[in-house]
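Appendix B. Chain record.
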Amino acid sequence: MLRQFQDAINDYGEALKITADDPRIYEQRAAVEMKANDMDKALADYSEAIKLKPNEVRYYGYRSYIYEVKGDIKDSMADTDKVLKLDPKNQEAISRKKRLETLRSLRATPAPPSPAGSTKTSPAGAHSPHKP
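Structure tokens predicted for this chain:
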């Protein structure tokens, strides 16, 4: 199946040699790259599509998704905010924003301190000597 993705990616690359200013080609190649789990290349292609058509909501939405998958909450939030600026009622962006805000707050919350007098636990499956 990977070969099929690579052939499609190559075909889109050839199309870009002929028509490098068509954002739809970048979008289509990025979609295949996402299916092939090559998020870095998909991210680059959505960024190119955005340069060519900066007010296309779906490009920001997909790029936001990729950033989220990669754990980049800041950039995902920025693209989500752009989607909402262009389309304030976009339900997917509204949901993503809530999810990203939750993730951001969880990351910002420090872990609770260990209880006083607690001892380190051994890794799962490890044996530790019993104390009498």
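Further analysis of this model is presented in Appendix C.
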